[in-house]
Amino acid sequence: MFQFKQFTIKQDRTPMKVGTDGVLLGAWADLKEANHILDIGTGTGLIALMAAQRNPNASIDALEIESNACLQAQENIYASSWAKRIQLIPKALQDYSSDIKYNSIVCNPPFFHQSTKTPNHGRTLARHNETLLHTELIQYVAKLLSPQGNFCVILPTNEALSMIEYAQQHQLYPSHITYILPTPEKPAKRYLIKFMTKPEILFEDKLIIELSRHKYSKEYIELTKDFYLHIES
Q1: Is the pTM of this model over 0.85?
Q2: Which are the contacts of 9, defined by CB distance < 8 A and separation ≥ 6?
Q3: Between β-strands 173-181 and 203-208, what pairing exists: parallel, antiparallel or unpaired?
Q4: Is 119 exposed, middle or buried (0-12, 13-18, 19+ CB in 10 A)?
Q5: CB-CB contact of 219 with 208 (8 Å)
Q6: What CATH architecture is 1-13+34-113+132-190+217-233?
Q7: pLDDT at 215 over 60
Q8: Pairing of strands 215-216, 210-212
């Protein structure tokens, strides 16, 4: 169980646990003006719950295909203060259609490709992109996103560069990239990317997580302080 300031994540049934990637995306994504938010691959429901906390006016649809994760996400959503605003949808993105065009779409996608599989089928679904290729993700996001909407995602460096290149073929353009550095001395391991439906001047910045072991940067603390119970510089 992972206790946040305003909600609790139970994760005993789920293949993927609360991690830094999900918290970063949930705290960073541009959700302020969104009335309708789609969380693709919600897992435990973490990002959907973070979205509900950050935007009290939004309704959130949360897609998930792994059966145990669906049960866990539903449990976490029901136990929160925002159960009426979050709808869990047990479907794959490829099987999902909506009359709603979403103002914001968020996804912490599976990103391993052709790498060693785990014996845990649920964990393989969550970590490997065979069930949701990034090319497919972009194609469906382009259909579901409103003309003024944004799509926010977190990916490792190589996958991020490939997605940026492919997304532009579907009229999705990066407007903000935050490079995530584990420590000041290490290169960026993740990209947080916001895509828009029209080209804009790209804003780039970086975020260092730790200055040294368990000594977090001011920027990381500022980004996550509304969620983590205990985090110190």
Answers
A1: yes
A2: 1, 2, 3, 18, 44, 45, 46, 49, 76
A3: parallel
A4: exposed
A5: yes
A6: 3-Layer(aba) Sandwich (3.40)
A7: yes
A8: antiparallel
Decide: 200 and 175 in contact? Cβ < 8 Å: yes
Question: Which token pair is 218?
Answer: 């001011």
Degrees (nearest 5) of the Cα angle 85, 91, 94?
Answer: 120
| Residue 7: partners with Cβ closer than 8 Å, 6 or more residues away | 49, 53, 76, 79, 80, 81
Q: What is the pLDDT of residues 111-134, one digit of tens each?
A: 744 444 444 444 444 444 456 899
Q: Give 169-210 pLDDT, tens digit per residue.
A: 999 999 999 999 999 999 999 999 999 999 999 999 999 999
What spatial distance separates the first Cα and last Cα of the chain, rounded to whole Å? Answer: 24
The full DSSP string for 100-133 is: SPEEEEEE----B-SSPPPS-HHHHHHHBTTSS-
Indicate the length of the chain as a whole number: 233
> What digits encode the pLDDT tens for the residues 47-88?
999 999 999 999 999 999 999 999 999 999 999 999 999 999
